[in-house]
Amino acid sequence: MVPPELMCRAHLLGEHRELHALAGMIRAGRALNGYVARALICTGDLAQRHEDLAQEMFYRGYRHNSPLQLTTGAGVGRVDVDVSMSELRRRCGQCRERMGYAATKGG
User: Fold this and answer.
1) Is it the case that residue 73 has pLDDT exceeding 60?
2) Which end of the chain, N or C, is more open, meaning fewer C-beta atoms within 10 Å of its C-beta?
3) Distance separating alpha carbons of residues 96 and 76, to the nearest angstrom
4) Domain total for the chain?
């Protein structure tokens, strides 16, 4: 997963919303086959990912008041970090700038 500190505001908040939507899908028993097939999700990491996003939101001075309502067993799927980073770099100039800045700072 892309480190939250490298994400622009829109992508940080967007992924946070998506995590809540995914948690709802899991609670409802809906299949996540498309996410799994494209290496976009690891259900075992959702709670920690939410915590990481919430922490970054706090660092940036954003309000966070939406605990993740999810209890899962073993994780399903995986996330291809290299593909995720490349795709975000390609799609978003602001994220690309943040990634470039982190690289110059050794991050």
Assistant:
1) no
2) C
3) 29
4) 1
What distance in Å separates the CA atoms of residue 12 and residue 56, rounded to the nearest whole number? Answer: 8
CA atoms within 13 A on the CB side of 46: 29
pLDDT band at residue 74 using 50, 70 and 90 as cut-offs: low
3-state secondary structure the chain: CCCHHHCCHHHHHHHHHHHHHHHHHHHCCCCCHHHHHCCEEEHHHHHHHHHHHHHHHHHCCCCCCCCCCCCCCCCCEEECHHHHHHHHHHHCHHHHHHHHHHHHCCC
Domain of residue 8, residue span? 4-104
